[in-house]
Write a structure and sequence with these properties.
The chain has about 675 residues and is α+β, with helices and mostly antiparallel strands. The protein is built from 24 helices and 24 strands. Strands 12-11-10-13-14-16-15 form a seven-stranded mixed beta sheet, with helices on both faces. The chain has a four-stranded antiparallel beta sheet with strand order 4-3-5-6. Strands 7-9-8 form a three-stranded mixed beta sheet. Strand 10, helix 7 and strand 11 form a beta-alpha-beta unit. The longest helix is centred in the first third of the chain and has 20 residues. The protein is globular.
Length: about 675
Amino acid sequence: MLPKVARLLCVTAARVSLQDLGKVSFRGLRTMEVLKSSQDISISDETGAPVDRVTTTSPANGNQSGATEPGLLPGETVVREGKAAILFPSANEVFYNPVQEFNRDLTCAVITEYARERLAEKGVRIVVPGEKERVVVCLSEDKQSSENHESTEHEQQQQQQLEDETENEKGGDKPGEEGVITASVGQRCEQGLHVLEGLAASGLRSVRFALEVPGLRSVTANDFSAKAAALIARNAEHNGVAHLVQASQRDASMVMYEARGKNQRFDVIDLDPYGSPSPFLDAAVQAVGEGGLLCITCTDMAVMAGNSGETCYSKYSSVSIKSRFCHEMALRIILHSLDQRANVYQRYIEPLLSVSVDFYIRVFVRVRTGQAKVKNSASKQALVYNCVGCGSFHLQRMGKRMSHGKNMKYSAATGPPVGPNCEHCGQRHQLGGPIWAEPLHDVEFVQKVLSAVSGNPSRFGTSKRIEGMLSMMTEELPDVPLYYTMDHLSSTVHCNTPALLQFRSALLHAGHRVSLSHACKNALKTDAPPAVLWDIMRCWEKANPVKRERLSETSPAFRILSTEPTLQACFEVRDDANPQSRRRHLVRFQENPQANWGPKARAKAGGGICTELEDKRKQFQGKRKSQITDLSQLKNVPCKRFRKGTCTHGEKCCYSHELESAPGEAEKME
């Protein structure tokens, strides 16, 4: 394989100068320094031997690692991920984000299963390297014999993996048994999928599609930058997929708007921008074909998690609120926005998989057309009433529908579901939404992706994490939007936190359903009303009492604990309280690989990155670690209430009432 790549690289090296590539502007590329930890730098090749993920050549000493890619130009960097080897002009100019490998691996897995379904209707069978036989993963209470049988099949698959890959890579778009056409990776399938990556940057994702997803007819890798488009074309030739990947240098919205015709639409559209995808959603819901797949990433979590509700409304037509369930609410906000924009064109969405992970959210939705189905969309959206005191929430559907035989009757919803103040703590409510109130996932589709990934674990570098996350999704209650958190319930009443299994068991003993959530480690999704949750917390507080004399009479804790529970909770641990994903110790919420590993500054138009955000982060790094321990030092800090004229402590105030204070010191302490 390497000699062929070297020949292609030598031919294309003369076409693009290093000076031009060194100024590549990437629209939609996240800037991220290469992690130096061993788990991020090293991967394994087909024989299992570890290889370097990043290779660099400098003009001074030529080869720094001793085993560079043949044909590399001076100063270039090669990043290896999956089966792709991507050229970058310089490690200092462009940053590769290894954290997003999970995103790209999951996307390849989802598109593979989507292609399997779509092409099966056309009589085409896709062939995935390393996949011998579909293994169905069951998360119910399995017997020991079935687990042993499943592990035996897994061992047999690993033994014959290399033979399967060799055999599968020889295949193409050719007839198999009984006239069935087979489609393999890296081969063009005339009846396959037409894929668009609207914001391709270096083309890493598109190249991985061509190398790892079978059943593709073409992949259009688009970017607004001419230099980025040139780099995409070079990376496609470098990986030997120029017959599948087509570089495009246009505005992503215009590419999609011009493909609105029924015969011109894309089967799969992938949008992974830096920040919000809202400018591209209107074009995306029109350019995707009937039953097509939309893959959308949002990284503007500060907006979607409640820091700027007005900005969230301007982008997604929904108001975000600060709450413990903000990450799942962000998923439901983007789904609401997609469905609303699709409704304008008599289309609607069907969420296949929605994931909140790391610093972003990712949704995979199927888009269909149907005027009758669009009428159901109003009843799929809901407003959220969230108590600012105790955190209890209620949902108010935007519409109401009732079935009358074969006909469906629609009417306005009635409400609100709450009074002026919270019935539990007496505090006010804040209003958020509207949000998507239907299931986040298609459990059957998620199960197919999970079975494929767990049956072929060597296909992706993040297979273990994908298996853990998808397992949690199959366990989630599909008809219960949003969730509570254990730490928030306990902090509200100022008591110690009960064990997770104890609280889950108490809900099960009370006759309610309960599950975890992939979006938060301490989350509890349950169909129990808030009154039942607070009754359980009251019973827990009786066994673990708090000092009520220290509670303010107006605090939520005092109001809640002053009411006697009507339910006697039982905290005896049940066997079904522990979910299978937790019993099997799957990778669900992995730790951060290193400090400051999240998204960094946006790439500048002329190349490189903007250092203003990085300097600001370094300035405020660890500002809360050196806290004041000596109360006498507080006299150096100006009193904020004294400035406003509301301080009632007078000379007894521990803060300074001096009007003239050092502005630099005051800003530092604030």
